[in-house]
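step 4 of 6: structure.
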Amino acid sequence: MRIREDKCVGCGACIPYCPVSSIVRDGGKAAVDEDECVDCGVCLRADICPAEAIFMPDECFEYPRAIRMQFSDPGVQHPNFKSWGRGTEEAKTNDVTGKFGRGEYGLLLEFGRPGTGTRLSEIEKVTTVIRNMGLDILKDNPLYGLLEEDLSGRFKPEYLNEKILSGILEFRFGEDELEEALGKLIPLLKDLDTVVSVGLVTRFADDASIPVIGKLAKMGLAVRPNAKINVGLGRPLVDR
Ligand code: SF4
Ligand code: SF4
């Protein structure tokens, strides 16, 4: 995003709209720190500029910069993956879709929310470790398309410095790999220059209990009981 200096009257109305604080005072005007801006479009869509000084320059639609809006503006579609917004679908409806079956877990790592955004280079610190552990990063996820094809877990170098509002990584592992996977990944997340939300996807047991909660407690990991629940009404049942 960019602000036309010749039009800006310096009212400051746009500044609080930026979720990553990339609109700054510049003398008597406002300016966008374009390296920090994630091209989410919020300041433009808010339609609050009295001088119509805010605009999206053509460079924002060119690669590699174009991935910023694809991972930051829910109204922009990923061109190859054809999903809207940040990414992965239906993790919350696993008991209906059976995406993660019995005997395995899904792990979702959401980088950058709330309010910080993330560089792809921070996510790469995790994807390389995941691949070193021999775990598969799920392909039905827009981040997957930015990775090198050599399965190293590295992103294509042109994307590394791009900053996005948030991105979700998703991968699966067996029940017997829980301790190793979380034991390696959780300490790694604490050193990243962004925030990460961790979600573990599992199935209810036949008696409606969630056995993994006890296993996580033994590892010193608390589970938030107020998790969002989506029952997946309208989705076809899958038997896995
Ligand atoms: S496009 Fe988004 S990140 Fe960039 S200046 Fe506007 S509100 Fe901030
Ligand atoms: S709202 Fe418009 S005129 Fe006011 S500071 Fe922002 S860009 Fe400048």
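step 5 of 6: annotate
 - The longest strand covers residues 104-111.
 - The pocket of iron/sulfur cluster (ligand 1) is lined by residues 1, 17-18, 20, 22-23, 32, 37-43 (CB under 6 Å).
step 6 of 6: archive
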